[in-house]
Amino acid sequence: MTDFAGWLMPLRYGSETAEHNAVRSGAALFDLSHMGEIAVTGAGAGEALDYAVCGWPSQLAPGRARYTMLCAPDGGVLDDLVIYRQAPDRFLVVANAANTAVVLGELQRRCAGAVVQDETEVTGLIAIQGPNAPGILSRVTDLPLEGMRYYAGASGTVGGCPAWVARTGYTGEDGFEIYCAAGDAERVWTALSEAASRDGEAGTPALPAAGLAARDTLRLEAGMPLYGNELGPDMTPYEAGLGRVVRLDKPGDFVGRAALEERAAEGPRRTLIGLVARSRRVPRHGYAVLSGSAEVGVVTSGAPSPTLGTPIAMAYVATGATGPFGIDVRGTTEPADLTELPFYDRRKQR
Amino acid sequence: MSVPAELHYTEEHEWVSIAGDTATVGITDYAAQQLGDVVYVSLPAVGAAVTSGEPCGEVESTKSVSDLYSPLDGEVVEANEELDDDPGLVNAEPYGAGWMFRVRIPAGSGGEAALPPGLLTAAEYEELTKSAG
After folding, report:
1. What was the pLDDT predicted at B63?
2. CATH number of domain containing A152
3. pLDDT tens, A286-342?
């Protein structure tokens, strides 16, 4: 167990590699109740969010979700968010646990004409991720899942408990995130476990619990940024290769607009790249990236990839750096090959 | 968590088993659990001289990398090559197939290999892990 933004969280329940592989080949359950949930409601909620974040939430159809960012006036990223439009007048903003207070404060300041309410404490969040997720979840929900698109959600029940079920996740795999009352989280978890155990081979849980360690290697393989590693107040979405989330085409001002327009015009100073190590020594957060003997960047996330079987890393390098790249692993330069992100794409594997 | 009574231990979470003039070294069950799944072990080369308390290798897990310290002075006579193909043995059998290297230790005055100073008994080591939480 580890302290994670004030929440006591399991790094792993058993073997994090087994948990990781379960998500890639079957399914696993995550307790993500630490995530921040902030409701923005009222007739003006969409327009208020258009000013507060760099995406265009008012254009979202009810029942759809979008990945977006909350930026500072200088364009720096304060958090990356998923926003669900749960009803015409209700948006659910999901923030990283470590940033929930910042996001709440900023939304309260920025969202004039809407009601901003922190629902973190009363909300449970259980994720079921992996190719078997739809089959397992369909047994215990009244929602038809076949028609539910990626980044869509609907209100229904799971294990008899009222829930907002969305086809979203942070693993690069198909799956769902289930938002429910905090008091119902255990019932939702148990209902899913029991639905899965009917498939289980004797003695092996068909739906193991997965912890933070597996969550981190899964998102890294999927090339997804982690706030504090690839994203932070000293970076704009453009450096992270996520300029598409900045909707400069939306009407009206929004926080960070002027700075982001400038940054969009001049191009990024740093580029986020993917590296696959040739050695078995693992590049870690903070290690220097070299081109020849010149230091050109820094590793933001690195881990042994259970799916690829070799260490992988994301790194920021000076725009234009071409390599061949090496990584300074505690004093020894280990060669690493530039690769396109993501490291793992389920649509290409199957 | 297992702490076999017949082994010696270090504060750096290595275990040592002494038979004749040879000491076998590995990391403890506690250490393996703390590290998580071990993915790579870098061991000292056969023939290398190792020094008590000095790093002589690395243990990489999913989340971290740790130095491997030699618990004693001597010459490395064998390194566990199985770990190259299956580093998970460190988690599965930390006191068995997950052993790391063997060292020839100098004979003491009585002809028997002398137990290097500063090693902990199983009871002392268990106490250490408890106080570490």
Report:
1. 87
2. 3.30.1360.120
3. 999 999 999 999 999 999 999 999 999 999 999 989 889 999 999 999 999 999 999
Q: Is the ipTM of this complex over 0.85?
A: no
pTM: 0.93
Tell me if B117 is assigned to some domain.
no
Distance CA A298, CA A290 (A): 9
In a domain, B3, yes or no: no
Q: Measured between CB atoms, does B37 come within 8 Å of chain A?
A: yes
CB of A280 within 8 Å of any CB in chain B?
A: yes
* Range 205-264 of A in CB contact (< 8 A) with B: 213, 216-217
Residues A292, A186 share a domain: no
Question: Looking at the domain assignment, is residue A98 inside a domain?
Answer: yes
Range of the domain at A148: 2-215
Asked if A36 and A183 sit in the same domain, the reply is: yes
Residue B108 pLDDT exceeds 70: no
Q: Beta-carbon neighbour count of residue A154 at 10 Å?
A: 19
CA A43 to chain centre: 28
In this structure, chain B runs to a length of 133
